[in-house]
Amino acid sequence: LMQLFRPLDMLGFVYRTVRQGLIDMAAMFQLMDSEVEVEDRPGAPALAIRQPTITFDNVVFGYDQDRTILHGLSFHVPVGGHIAIVGPSGAGKSTIARLLFRFYDPWSGRILIDGQDISEVTQASVRAAIGIVPQDSVLFNDTVGYNIAYGRAGATDEDVLAAAQGAAILPFIEKLPQGFDTEVGERGLKLSGGEKQRVAIARTLVKNPPILVLDEATSALDSRTEQDILDTLHRVSENRTSLSIAHRLSTIADADEILVLNEGRMAEKGSHSALLERRGLYADMWNRQQNESGAEAEIAE
Ligand code: ATP
Hints:
This is ATP-binding cassette domain-containing protein. Helices cover about 40% and strands about 20% of the residues. It has helices at about 1-10, 15-30, 95-100, 125-130, 145-150, 155-165, 170-175, 195-205, 225-235, 270-280, 280-300, and strands at about 55-60, 70-75, 80-85, 110-115, 115, 130-135, 210-215, 240-245, 255-260, 265-270. Helix 6 crosses helix 8 (about 195-205) and helix 8 (about 195-205) runs parallel beside helix 9. A six-stranded mixed beta sheet has the order 6-7-8-3-9-10, with helices on both faces. The site of adenosine-5'-triphosphate has 13 residues, from helix 3.
């Protein structure tokens, strides 16, 4: 991975956004080994966001020619809307996020942000508009402050402080021997999974993107920490348009709309309660997970 970043470093800050995008994506989707497949067309303008909406319009996509993964997917996330995508493993949930980040172009159909086709604008501007809070955050071997400030070139100390507060990690940082100057990562202080995730949330707050992609599979956290982080994420998403990729259904029950994906098709969509009433795939998944967590609780007793 560092071989990839070193030449980008030499090219300077112009690549900062792209590089940040790569780090986020690498962390979220373990894409380290795959090639970036799309290029900006010459003279492509930057995405101009006034109304952060997301639209998938009949999107057909596969990684290999002989296997279609998304079969004509359509959905719309309105300004400030919170949409969650659920579905069995391999249904295509992460693929949707990768397409939104324009790691690939659809075979047919369109993906729009604020009405603009993302294949017609620069990738850097698309990635600058989207904040990702990945499940496993990557921290640099540098100070806590640097790790937060990295969200945006030119972030001031005040920005970093406000972001740490917003991510509810300020009290923790203030207790560190050197505060924001404390070294973290492999060569410094080891942070817990929850602390790392809060640093990632703070970094996203510094970036201040109009669109958030949340990977809510906070599997490495105990349930108390997970609930605290979810509360923080909900607060952070309040004035933004968000797309959550959920593996555990309990984390997204209050989304405006839940899209249930199955084998690359929209099997169901609706609110949590409407989907439970339907007694379909979502209700099955919900009941199964309730039983599983019940069984876990019994073992713990
Ligand atoms: P999970 O809940 O297990 O993370 P998911 O719904 O996010 O699953 P995706 O990661 O979107 O699923 O994958 C959808 C399908 O696309 C899977 O069958 C997967 O094997 C395939 N796939 C994913 N990435 C690639 C790739 N880079 N090349 C080829 N096939 C891929």
